[in-house]
Amino acid sequence: MKNISNNNDSELVEKAKKGNEMAFNFLMNKYYARVYASLLSFTKSHQDSEDLTQQTFLKVWQQLKTFRGDSAFFTWVYRIAINLAKNYVSSSGYKKQKLNISVEDSEIEINSFKDIELELMHDQSLKNIKFFIDSMPESLRTAFTMREQEGLSYDEISKITETPIGTVRSRIFRARESILEYINTELITND
Amino acid sequence: MTDIKEKLSALYDGELESSQIDDLLEECRNNDELIRSFSLYGLISLSLNQESKISQISQSRRRPKRRGFADIWLSNAVTAAASIILTLFAVNNVDFSRMSINIDSTNQIASAVNSQEAKQTAENSSEYLVDHVMNVINDPSFMNSKSKVDLQNVGYRINQSSNPEYSNGVQKFKLRIENRDFGLNQIRYWKHGNKMIYVVPISNGRAVTLYGNISLPTAIQIANSINK
């Protein structure tokens, strides 16, 4: 039996706590879009959501040592984002917060959405991606959607599809590669 | 490179062997392309699972930046949180004077409102209400309440699915009852996309949340029906 954790987040968190910025970078890249989208539901402003998302991950970095792992990492991040969003409700509080914490002055590089990410946020891009996923070979599409939409583990997908777990992992990876290639060649260059 | 990328994909899914994480992090340290791929995995996932939010993102890009919060949640006056804050901090003698309310009474009210206990209570209520509304907006399963209410007397039937929704054929909404009233003594409502969120205090310190394309009078009618 291989030593595979249910979720590598906790391992990345432990490494980040010890100062491993790359581990934190991975956590931030993994959840940046989710936090951003959640905050956007709240602010309906791209700029404010971006600011708040950056503030969120800056706080996450600063407070990481206090994270005890009682909840999932994303739950904790989400809580921080919500608290910042509450300050946003009181605009004066939000402004004060902005003055007190400067992303530019922080000791770690915080993400920001680049053009490619923003391009993907277009409705039409989204539809194109979905259309592309629908057109992928059945074996790739099945493994990928089971993972992404149903949230099944590799082991569960392996059992359901009666496929070796290594093949499941490979199919999901190939599906992602195909989508990325499609994005890079069709969506970004032709838009 | 393919092997590294496959490990990256497995790491994103939380399925990478623990012993391989350090090596992968090291491999990625000076490889922006790998990190960018990892970031895009998140966006692809988001695009598959949160279409409605993405739509909002698209719409927001067409708006001028830095528009006011008033654009976001259209409450009956201001947002719930903001109104509680206003209750706490903006209520003063001058305000009451402008409304021709007795000054002696307002002194007592202002004193009570500004007490530490009142502030604490209201702050808690505000926190819970904001959390609550955020959950309604962000968590698709939050409104899938197991508690079902018979609303046929006001013309609404519930579908018998895992995603219960009340409908009269035209208007549709979801309903959830909380065993707390968030400190509300009147209905609060917000506009979210093409839907409305109503939080209505009802009997026994409870509150009913209605989320759908229904009007304010309908929401009040439904809440009254539940109260009976």
Structural description of this entry:
The complex is a heterodimer of chains A (191) and B (228). Chain A has helices at residues 9-17, 21-43, 46-63, 73-89, 91-100, 115-120, 123-135, 138-148, 154-161, 165-190. By secondary structure, chain A is mainly alpha-helical. In chain A, helix 1 crosses helix 2, helix 4 (73-89) crosses helix 5 (91-100) and helix 7 crosses helix 10. Chain A is globular and about 50 Å long. Chain A starts with 8 loop residues before the first helix and ends with a helix. Chain B has a 6-stranded antiparallel beta sheet with strand order 1-2-3-6-5-4, with helices on both faces. By secondary structure, chain B is of the alpha+beta class. The radius of gyration of chain B is 24 Å and the shape is elongated. Residues 56-107 of chain B have low confidence and may be disordered. Chain B contains 9 helices and 6 strands. In chain B, strand 4 and strand 5 form a beta hairpin. Chain B has helices spanning 2-12, 18-28, 32-49, 51-61, 80-90, 93-98, 103-113, 116-138, 216-227; strands at residues 157-158, 166-167, 172-178, 188-192, 195-202, 206-212. The interface between A and B is large, with 69 and 64 residues.
Compact description:
The complex is a heterodimer of chains A (191) and B (228). Chain A is mainly alpha-helical and 191 residues long.
